[in-house]
Amino acid sequence: MFADRARIFIRSGKGGNGHVSFRRELYVPDGGPDGGDGGRGGDLIFVVEPGLNTLVDFRHKRKYCAGDGKEGGKRRCTGAKGENMILKVPAGTIIKDAETGKVILDMSNRTEPVVLLKGGRGGKGNQHYATATMQAPKYAQPGQPARELWVDLELKVIADVGLVGFPNVGKSTLLSRVTNANPKIANYHFTTLNPNLGVVDLSEGNGFVIADIPGIIEGASEGVGLGLEFLRHIERTKVMIHLVDAASVEGRDPIEDIRAINRELKAYNPDLANRPQVIAANKIDAMTEEDCQVIVEMLEEEFGSEGIRVFPISAVSGKGVKELLWHVNALLKEFPEETTEFAQEYFFEEENEEPVDSIVVAKAEPGVFTVEGPKVERMLGYTNLESEKGFEFFQKFMKENGVLKRLEELGIEEGDTVRLYHLEFDYYK
Questions:
Q1: Which of 99, 157, 181, 260 has its C-alpha lying 20 to 30 A from 68's C-alpha?
Q2: Model-level pTM?
């Protein structure tokens, strides 16, 4: 089965922690701090792979995590960088936030790899925190946390022209005649279960990509039949060819078929109804010339005022097909050559940015509370808790920033543990 959707969990790498160590050399009994910085976490990267045309690989594996950075070492050694995670997707893949459905990234026109989630920065080693008043800092900065997200991958095929029509009107037959595609053709409904793409090669460098979009019937926009499975694939198309059974072999009304499909397109995406359309009245080889003339005049009278041309064709014999293709080619020249790209709606950096001065107080487990945040990290970096003055400053910091109040709201009791990164102390009023 053609796989055009997948939900996956992605995560960048956590930054490695900074290291706490001191020089220990012969004849230097009290060497200074030499803890190295942690390594940067790996990035989560998306890249278009030309040979791919489905998302089937993402059905078997759901979690993709970049490598974490390694902790720094002694002698100012920086920890190793985490390994990047590179996800290869087909052209036309859209990445959406799973929770909101907003577009994060459209890989249609991307020729270079795109870093979606950056790895966390490595923490600074204790060598950076030595001051005139604190020459032996026993604190190093933790690495930045990893960034993680559940995302939906959707593949919207990249085609210039969408071929739409009710089942059994001859879409697959027409596609096989005008392109190098080899769709399955049989005389029963829903023979086509996958969007089929083909290249129409006209003379003098003219041509375009056409897609046979199956499953669009009445109620498709509401999930009837296979509609929702494939309606997404028509969103990038610039021109639509409505193929109808002009001979009414199965008793269908061509005019009502076109109206019904247009209603579904409009219900799914109002913009689709405004795109140029062409009507291909198929199966004229099964009609007399008089009957063909009547049905074409009916279609022109109904849709001509909307600027829609009608072309009588036979997908089997090829009659009238060349005129149809050249008209579609002319319509396409009115559009820019770039593939339609969906604008970004979800900005991960902005949505998940932590305020610079935020302090997060939480109950990690019974009897253990954590206090974290950039402001806490900075305070620990320049405060010597081993000195009386430094400890007084620490207590003042905890009170003025509402940390003690928040701990009491969470139900802390005397003797419980408070953890600030590498520092732990017992709580007493």
A1: 99
A2: 0.62
